[in-house]
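_Per-residue structure_
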Amino acid sequence: MSLWKQINLQDANSFLMENMIQFHDYAMIMIVMILMFIMYSGVYLLMNKTYNKYMINHHMIEIIWIILPMLILLILALPSLKLLYLTDSTNSPNLTIKVIGHQWYWSYEYNDLNKLNFDSFMIKESNDTNHFRLLDVDNRMIIPNNYQIRLNVSSTDVIHSFTVPSLGFKIDAVPGRINQINLKTIRSGL
């Protein structure tokens, strides 16, 4: 759950989110290294008195300017493609949950569990400190731990967004279309 003044990502509750956090850290290291190199080069060029700013004609520098960004993008693209593959990988699910977005609430249908279905409404704002402000609902969707789960997400009226940041997914609920996502939790929690 997100806390006040939290800068980093939520604690991961799935294998996919753990990989996303690792990719985020990897990309941030690359960005900081590039930023430090640019700052060093800028300070060096400003402080160096023997360097002629108006006579720059060097083909090797131009080749490096082309090759180096291509290599950096390739280094970032490979782990990103791995994550993209992991999000779309389908295993045989142990449980299928149908999630339907309505104008002010969500409906959940557990077809594998004797056709269990219920609606989930947001709790009105109160001064209680034991509720998550604007995030708590009266009936929570409960998923088992260490089970391969498939969510079929759709909508009845307009486009909605169904997301659980700690599980590392965000999927659109579009009327007339069923979007699917697979997930597996690695620990219990809200």
Q: What stands out?
A: The first helix runs from residue 15 to 47. The domain at 95-183 is CATH 2.60.40.420 (Immunoglobulin-like). The chain has two domains: 15-88, 95-183.
